[in-house]
Amino acid sequence: MAKTTQTTETRQDTLRALEMLDTRLRWLSAWTIHNANHLREKRDGLKVGGHQASCASITAIMAALYFHALRPQDKVAVKPHAGPVLHAIHYLLGTQSLDQLQRFRGLGGAQSYPSRTKDRIPVDFSTGSVGLGVAITAFSSLVQDYLIAHGALAEGQAGRVIALMGDAELDEGNIYECLIEGYKHDLRNCWWVVDYNRQSLDHTTADRMFRRFDDIFETCGWRVLTLKYGVQQRAAFERPGGQSLQEWIDTCPNADFAVLTYQGGAAWRARLMADIGTRSNVAKLLGSYDDAALAALMTNLGGHCMETLCAAFDSADDDRPTLFIAYTIKGYGLPLAGHKDNHSGMMNPPQIAALRDSLGIAAGEEWAPFGGLGDNVAAQLKAFIDRSALARRSPEPRPPAVPVPPRLPVPEGAELSTQAAFGRILLDLAKSGEPLGDRIVTTAPDVTQTTNLGGFVNQRGLFRRQALADVFRAANIPSAQKWSGHAAGQHIELGIAENNFFLILAALGLAGPHFGTRLIPVGTVYDPFIARGLDALNYACYQDARFLLVVS
To answer: Does residue 362 come out as left (phi exceeding 0), alpha (psi in the -120 to 50 range) or beta?
Structure first.
């Protein structure tokens, strides 16, 4: 967790600083999108795009994660539509330029979605095709375990690999393929944080999914932490009439909650009084809040409450994979909050001017990193940022190339199929003792034997953190496949899921910049199955991951 270097910050000081950062990130991300669409000169006058509401729902989560929970060795995949928030974080850190923000979604400017290859800020994982940026974090964690087991990374240097995801990404099938594969490999050091705003582009999330995600993830060995209520709500629940209020919140349909959020305090009061106003002490409880305070109470969800977020992140202090379901409001803090059209909707000029004025930011000072805070508060907040672990993070390593022999062995025989030759070359490298052979990592989606990787695996073994005996060999049953699993193994066995196959190739191909050791990943598959995983293959190449794909 983030520590100070001179004096011990009180918990409340930290929470106040994080709350200010939440507000700064919400403003800067909204203004960046507004500038691109309403202020920047455009030849065609068309909408540039951007997602102000999707950014606003996750700014508190990202403030708590990046400036409190994140350690220098941790890595994060940011949900695509929160790209402007990531740029705002680096703008506050001083690692993103004003010019890049002003050219957001323009040629040479900050990208729509986080990109390793195009953005100028540090980006751990490109995201864009939803679901893939989430799943690669699990495979990156597996690669980290591989390097630890092979002595290329110290256990104490292990970091968490974290995905920030929109709840609509839970509809992507590759998420569940990844969950199953992760369970097989005893996944650890992986966090997935769900921005559970319950609104996608076209609709609100089905109410019946409540608790289903918990069940699915817990079955696969994950810890599930649900952040539904903020501290204000929890305090209200302890008051007379509070239990009835909590029961109403728990049973309120997602669509109704969104409508009431958009309508505001008076609508909340009318609905609550109509539904539960006759219950004991409810009217008195509601009467203790004016309309603005009641609206703030009803939207004080766990994903917007800094104390709740920090406590949850702090509690997950081991290596168990953890799913955080953080309830949020899409468009939180904006006039778009809760509206069904807010996914692609944007504030108009009067609305963003009103938001600017409410934050005390003077006209013309919209890009000021700490505008509206006053010199003393701005200096304190800047110092808080500079003390964060994120500010101390080193640039990605650039490990040297793997030495390659001047000549590879040529398979013997006057006539040989290319597939057989490939298998023989790998086997000879496995036996050679060359550094190249030690850096090769093979993988296949349940086609290891039939794509001629068997000889390499016989020689080098399956990678398993825990030893896995070959029971057929122990029983003296003859087999060409003499595969044992152990920590020194160099083949990662996968089930039949081509998305997983290409994502682990991507993660292996990023081992150099991510963990400081370059690997030579070799993946084999039949050519008809490339189409099934083509999106993940494109994604892997967009990351600039380096690997060999061998197709039969």
So the answer is: beta
Q: For residue range 210-240, list pLDDT tens digits in order.
A: 678 899 999 999 999 999 999 999 999 999 9
Q: What is the pLDDT of residue 380?
A: 96
Q: Collapsing DSSP states into helix, strand and coil, what is residue 442?
A: strand
Distance of alpha carbon 455 from alpha carbon 246, whole angstroms: 61
One DSSP character per residue, 510-544 reads: THHHHHS---EEEEEE-GGGTGGGHHHHHHHHHTT
- State the DSSP string of 182-250: HHHTT--SEEEEEEE--B-SSSBPPGGGTTHHHHHHHHTT-EEEEE-B-HHHHHHHTSTTHHHHHHHHH
The tokens for 127 are 């995201």
Cα(408)–Cα(403) distance, integer angstroms: 12
Q: pLDDT tens across 60-86, in order? A: 999 999 999 999 999 999 999 999 999
User: Would you tell me how many other CB atoms lie within 10 Å of the CB of residue 189?
Assistant: 24
Closest CA to 306 of 8, 113, 21: 21
Tally Cβ neighbours within 10 Å of residue 345: 16
DSSP calls for 363-400: TT-TT-TTTTS-HHHHHHHHHHHHTSTGGGPPPPP-PP
Rounded Cα distance, 58 and 223, in Å? 21
Q: In whole angstroms, give the CA distance from residue 81 to residue 64.
A: 18
- Taking the C-alpha atoms of residue 264 and residue 235, their distance in angstroms, rounded to an integer, is 21
What pLDDT does residue 310 have? 97
Number of alpha carbons in the 13 Å side-chain half-sphere of residue 419: 13
Residues β-bridged to residue 164? 193
Instruction: Quote the CA–CA distance of 75 and 190 in Å, as a whole number.
Output: 10
Which residue stretches of 35-97 are H helix? 52-56, 59-64, 83-93
Top pLDDT among 535 and 3 is at 535
CB 25 within 8 A of CB 63: yes
User: CA-CA distance, 103 to 472, in Å (whole number)?
Assistant: 62
